[in-house]
Known about the structure:
The structure holds two protein chains of two kinds. By secondary structure, chain A is α/β, with parallel strands linked by helices. Chain A is 49% helix and 10% strand. Chain A folds into two domains: 3-123, Glutathione S-transferase Yfyf (Class Pi), Chain A, domain 2 (Up-down Bundle), CATH 1.20.1050.140; 141-288, Rossmann fold (3-Layer(aba) Sandwich), CATH 3.40.50. Chain A has 14 helices and eight strands. Chain B is mainly alpha-helical. Chain B contains five helices and no strands.
Amino acid sequence: MKKYALFTGCLIYQRLPHLEAVSVEVLARLGIKIRRLNGFTCCPEPTTMKMLNKMVWYALAARNLAVAEMEGLDILTLCNGCNATLFRVAEDLKSNRRLRESVNKVLESVEKSYEGKVKVKSILRVLYEEVGLEALSKSITRPLKKLKVAVHHGCHIYDELSHYDDVKNPKVFKSLLRALGCEVVDYPSEGLCCGAFIRPVDEELSLSMVREKTLEIRKAEADCIAVLCPTCLIQLDVGQVMASRKFNETLDTPVLYLTQLIGLAMEMSLDEVGMKYHTLKSGRLAEKLH
Amino acid sequence: MSYARRPWELTGIGLSFPMVAVLRFKKLAPLIDGFKAVAASIAKGGLSAPVTSMALKRRRDLNLPELKFSSEEAVKIYQKLGFLKLIEESK
């Protein structure tokens, strides 16, 4: 199995470190080695910096790639946003020599250069392509057979996802959950954005997106929502509490990151996978694990 | 001119979330200010928001290492690209 530089991203490092802990544990059990590197910065965030100044976006991301390249490691991302930036920049710099030269001129200011050798993969892709469904299925000791799960991919994974899945009807995430024994339920707004990005400027719209999604998820009788992105997790977790207050409804479907579900299927407890740190606690999950 | 001064270009940056959400933005200024704050935070501590003592405590509780982030090199890149001025405007 390969060894990766772990890129947690800002949100997981600071606000959701339990997702880092459970991911590292699960990856180790599946034979994926990781190394944490000093010297990274924010990826930078794919919408923000690209809009303010695209060359700054390229250069900061390329510097992160160069840090991993100096260690001879590819990058494993735990956050959709980090993946959107680092995957796209790595692809662009690999295929566009002129752009790489321009970026490397900027990187001279920090005495670095990037040769275009680093591959960036999300944890979803690593689990699917390198571990595989069969090995994942064999690694679990507590199949989550009673658990009905609704998936939320998150917008920023779709660039990478288009390289190994059908983005109009994605199946990879669901197939991993089925390998854990879960029943995956469909709902109409599965592809709808979580609304996190617009919360600072239009909270009502943002929360109404949470409401629409989670009402449909509840109608589909899901026990929990599975996500791949820390931003989506916070938005759907905290957002349901806020939306409940705003719209006078009870929205309380627990939200779990992919590796938390894998951890549960490996007989880790709800506390060990970090559910105590979520705003919406485990709900009916405990009884569904037996 | 930075993109921050041309918010109508929001539709041209390849955002993947529903564009109806963007079109319904009531106030773009706070959004752009938020973007600048993120850029400033990277210059200060390397991450998009400051690392709090509470965050570090939780990392220790989970036996996770404290990492070093390279804000100095981010600042040098900002300087090289004339980006610092934009951030300073936001202070």
